[in-house]
Amino acid sequence: GAVVSQHPSWVICKSGTSVKIECRSLDFQATTMFWYRQFPKQSLMLMATSNEGSKATYEQGVEKDKFLINHASLTLSTLTVTSAHPEDSSFYICSARRLAVEIDTQYFGPGTRLTVL
Amino acid sequence: AQSVSQHNHHVILSEAASLELGCNYSYGGTVNLFWYVQYPGQHLQLLLKYFSGDPLVKGIKGFEAEFIKSKFSFNLRKPSVQWSDTAEYFCAPMRSYIPTFGRGTSLIVHP
């Protein structure tokens, strides 16, 4: 149990376009999901906390207008990178916290590799 | 601000060697502690966690970690590593439901 999926697993786009990444909890409900960014050989940097039915909470330095987060249901959160630029190229990872069970344990998706040309 | 320090960035061992990866965090108060592992080409998986109680925590695949409150440490150990333990290891203290990930330690185990 506790499976989290991400779609797509990789995407290549042109500079200036927008890209949407989906994060789904497949076998449990998640009121809270997290979005991370991971650079090569570096740690995960928390970008934002996504709460079902309310606005996301962004970490300092993360542009909320550039990284749009929507958490419309208990099993789906989306991250949209708007007007993508080459410096947005990175590995984006989501995680989900199980509702009412192991609330402090996160289950991670496989990640999405974004390459902006 | 919270910070996490993983002292060993790259570790290379031979099979059957013992492993200890250091992790220190900078803040006091109630904190939950996690170690995650990322095998090559796979996503992050929970290795073990500490919430309260016995400070020596046992996880999957023979790993264990010891919480030493006075030292703000949560070091990961395994008495005898295997080739299949080759992976990236991340320490992640969590406070107020928000985790902070360490830089990670790349472990390579030679057969």
Describe the structure.
- The complex is a heterodimer of chains A (117) and B (111).
- Chain A has 117 residues and is mainly β.
- Chain A has strands at 4-7, 10-13, 19-25, 32-38, 44-51, 57-58, 67-73, 76-81, 90-97, 106-108, 112-116.
- Chain A is globular, with a radius of gyration of 13 Å.
- With 111 residues, chain B is mainly β.
- Chain B is 0% helix and 50% strand.
- Chain B is built from no helices and 12 strands.
- The mean pLDDT of chain B is 91.
| End-to-end distance of chain B | 41 Å
Number of helices of chain A: 0
Portion in helices of chain A: under 10%
- Label the overall shape of chain A: globular
Features:
heterodimer; A: 117 residues; seven-stranded mixed sheet; four-stranded antiparallel sheet; 11 strands; 0% helix; B: 111 residues; mainly beta; six-stranded mixed sheet; 12 strands; globular
Short description:
Chain A is an all-beta fold and 117 residues long. Chain A has strands spanning 4-7, 10-13, 19-25, 32-38, 44-51, 57-58, 67-73, 76-81, 90-97, 106-108, 112-116. Chain B is an all-beta fold and 111 residues long.
Q: Which secondary structure elements does this structure contain, and how are they paired or packed?
A:
The complex is a heterodimer of chains A (117) and B (111).
Chain A: E1 4-7, E2 10-13, E3 19-25, E4 32-38, E5 44-51, E6 57-58, E7 67-73, E8 76-81, E9 90-97, E10 106-108, E11 112-116
Parallel strand pairs in A: 2-11
Antiparallel strand pairs in A: 1-3, 3-8, 4-5, 4-9, 5-6, 7-8, 9-10, 9-11
Chain B: E1 4-5, E2 10-14, E3 19-21, E4 24-25, E5 32-38, E6 45-50, E7 56-58, E8 64-68, E9 73-78, E10 87-95, E11 98-99, E12 105-110
Parallel strand pairs in B: 2-12
Antiparallel strand pairs in B: 1-4, 3-9, 5-6, 5-10, 7-8, 8-9, 10-11, 10-12
